[in-house]
């Protein structure tokens, strides 16, 4: 599979996964967290699909498309660990987290996901969902929508 085809699969998985998750969290209290803003495409889709919740965003730098800049109060700029800790200490809970961090080096990405997993787990509301390209630990993996290859995108539910 070419890198272009792989990207198409990833984008389709993100769209289908976010749409699916948005319906599943209807009764779950909490905000939404976008981990990795990048160009802002998935954040923009979250804004469209989850209109009634605050959407927090964590990224090292702000360099997204101008139409996708989050409100300053919702953008946490810096390394993930201190930003997640800040949310935890603020008492925030997430109904939905979209984990989209990555260096593009599989081993490094998997290591980062494992390292951040305990902090992510502390933020998730009971019954909340996490969508991720990387395997996470300490959360219960569940089946996502049938349209997504279970090895392409991963879905987790907090206990």
Keywords:
globular, 159 residues, 4 helices, Rossmann fold, alpha/beta, seven-stranded mixed β-sheet
Question: Can you offer a commentary on this structure?
Answer:
- The chain contains four helices and seven strands.
- It has 159 residues and is an alpha/beta fold.
- It has a single domain (3-157), classed as 3-Layer(aba) Sandwich (Rossmann fold), CATH 3.40.50.
- The protein has a seven-stranded mixed beta sheet with strand order 3-2-1-4-5-7-6, with helices on both faces.
- Strand 4, helix 4 (106-123) and strand 5 (124-132) form a beta-alpha-beta unit.
- It is globular.
- 34% of the residues are buried.
Number of domains: 1
The CATH class: Alpha Beta
Strand order of the largest sheet: 3-2-1-4-5-7-6
N- to C-terminal distance: 36 Å
CATH topology heading: Rossmann fold
CATH superfamily: Vaccinia Virus protein VP39
Summarize the main sheet. Answer: 7 strands, mixed
Could you give the topology of this structure?
Layout: H1 3-24, E1 31-35, H2 41-49, E2 55-59, E3 75-77, H3 80-89, E4 94-99, H4 106-123, E5 124-132, E6 140-142, E7 154-157
Parallel strand pairs: 1-2, 1-4, 2-3, 4-5
Antiparallel strand pairs: 5-7, 6-7
Short précis:
By secondary structure, the protein is of the alpha/beta class. It is built from 4 helices and 7 strands. It has one domain: 3-Layer(aba) Sandwich (Rossmann fold), CATH 3.40.50.150.
């Amino acid at each position: 599979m070419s890198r272009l085809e792989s990207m198409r699969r990833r984008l389709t998985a993100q769209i289908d996964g976010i749409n699916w998750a948005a319906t599943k969290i209807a009764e779950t209290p909490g905000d939404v967290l976008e981990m990795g803003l990048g160009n802002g495409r998935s954040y923009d889709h979250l804004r469209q699909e989850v209109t009634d919740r605050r959407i927090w965003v964590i990224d090292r730098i702000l360099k997204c498309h101008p139409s996708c800049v989050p409100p300053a109060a919702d953008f946490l700029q810096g390394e993930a660990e201190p930003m997640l800790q800040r949310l935890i200490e603020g008492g925030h809970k997430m109904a939905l987290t979209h984990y989209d961090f990555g260096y593009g080096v599989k081993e490094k990405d998997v290591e980062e996901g494992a390292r951040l997993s305990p902090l992510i787990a502390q933020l998730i509301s009971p019954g909340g969902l996490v969508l991720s390209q990387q395997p996470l630990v300490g959360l219960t993996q569940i089946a996502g929508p049938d349209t997504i290859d279970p090895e392409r995108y991963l879905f987790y539910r907090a206990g």
